[in-house]
Amino acid sequence: MKKLFISSFVAVLFSSNLCWADSVTDQVKSFVNIYQSICLKYLNNMDDARQKLKPLPALPDKKARFFLQGMSGTVWPVPDKHGTFVLVIHERKNFCAVYAHRVNAGLVEKSFTERFRQAPPPLQATLKEDKREVNANNVPVRTLAYTWSAAGAKKKMLFMLTTSTSTDAPLQGMLSASTIQD
After folding, report:
1. I want to staple 64 with a disulfide (CB 3.0 to 4.6 A). Which of 59, 89, 96, 104 is the partner?
2. Minimal CA–CA distance to 143: which of 121, 156, 158, 155?
3. 20-53, pLDDT tens digit by residue?
4. pTM for the whole thing?
5. Nearest-angstrom CA–CA distance, 116 and 105
């Protein structure tokens, strides 16, 4: 009987960890999919993204300010069964970001690095930033950024990820895509 109980306990423990692992993986997949389907797809033409999203309800200005950080733009909540996500597009520039309330930092960092450390030819990838720090709210954060550009080009695509493993962080993930001039 004791052996049956231990076997059952181990089976439940492993199955619950697998479910947890699946939900964590699904959360990261949702976060990355939102980023890819809007920010990356429309990176060179955010006006198309703005038009596509225009009919959707945006966050009220008071709540949007937190995500816009002094810039003008629009912020949309993104309904998803795997997490709480927010999409931000700045008004007059090619900048798009997706924020995740909770996300596994290690998994999203791995996914991001695998995706952006090598650019498709003829573009070149450059690691622009890999920084770990503690922010003003005493929360540890990591920022990774890659640029993609043609050799000698002044215009570059900037892909950035900021994560935190702290449960005290109001947001644990931010993926952004923008175009910049060198």
Report:
1. 59
2. 158
3. 345 668 999 999 999 999 999 999 999 999 999 9
4. 0.85
5. 16
